[in-house]
Amino acid sequence: MLSSKRILITGGAGFIGSNLALSLxxxxxxxxxxxxxxxxxHGENANESFLYKSIKDKVSFIKGDVRNREDWGKALVGQDxxxxxxxxxxxxxxxxxxxxxxxxxxxGTALLLDILANSEHGIKKIIVASSRAIYGEGRYLCSLHxxxxxxxxxxxxxxxGFFECKCPICEKYLEVLSTHEESKIQPQSIYGISxxxxxxxxxxxxxxLNIPAVALRYQNVYGPGQSLSNxxxxxxxxxxxxxxxxxxxxxxxxxxxxxxxxxxxxxxxxTILSLENENANFNVYNVGTGRQVNILYxxxxxxxxxxxxxxxxxxxxxxxxxxxxxxxxxxKISRDLDFKPKFQFEEGVSEFVKWVNSQEIKExxxxxxxxxxxxxxxxx
Length: 380
Known about the structure:
Blueprint: E1 6-10, H1 15-26, E2 30-35, H2 39-42, H3 50-55, E3 60-63, H4 69-76, E4 81-84, H5 98-118, E5 125-131, E6 139-142, E7 146-148, H6 155-159, E8 175-177, H7 190-209, E9 213-218, E10 220-222, H8 235-244, E11 249-251, E12 258-259, E13 261-263, H9 264-276, E14 283-287, E15 293-294, H10 295-306, E16 312-314, H11 331-337, H12 345-356, H13 366-375
Parallel strand pairs: 1-2, 1-4, 2-3, 4-5, 5-9, 9-14, 10-13, 11-16
Antiparallel strand pairs: 6-7, 6-8, 12-15
Helix pairs in contact: 1-9, 5-7, 8-10, 10-12
């Protein structure tokens, strides 16, 4: 168990970071936060954002950029561990803001490790936020060829309304399996590539510097506090904002694409377990629920909980770089850290909706994000 109690969270004013900071404080940790208060996440007046206000009087806050050596220098003073969450996180956006995503996610992480390799410090552990996006499509079962890992779906098939993955050998349709940590790594977005680079940098440098390191492959995280104005954030927030604005919901593909949606409290719990447990050292872990939830089911749950009626359109549109299915195998994190998710989707989404109903809802910017994708040929 980590004996010291001074923790630096990069991106600590974000959705995961702010919730994590508050939980660590309750456990007696002294928390510092390095965050640039990105307008995309916090809005034009970051000082008034829900997330920032929740932590600003409870942590030592440093406004800074992970690409800036001086900002890192200030933030690392006196710290015992780093939980590195700071990153650009829009999968679709990453396909055209390539340099920004690479410089923040990869460059910022490399700079941290360079400082640790060449300066005096007290860092005894590093945890880095990775992502299920590193897998690309998940693990599948072919009736003829067994376990397979399909590549990106064929654009011709997608245009013709064939959305499911096919066996890369015989082209038969496949059965979805849970994705474990030994599954094939084949990211299909710049974001996914950058997250895999992050975790590899941290794990390899951690070993060479004798600093225990852990990479957490978060699934689709949601819950109270998630940005309702960021059009590149989670689909629950996007749909909620549309519903509250009485705007139609346009569902991509056929609505049967699925993800593993994990509630924020479970993500915070898994992160703290990896901080405090030596069994986690130099390991990677999936953090999810181990359950698939498809988009049609999500929309149905939200409409029922909001008691709303808006037009729902199955458009058949798709985004290049999107995957069809992925959900986590939790065998490893359950065995090593005794992690078990406490929130099923139905319970978590109910808590999320209660929180949204307490918030002032602004106009959705989602259509602008789709327009950007269309202009770049990434939305069909």
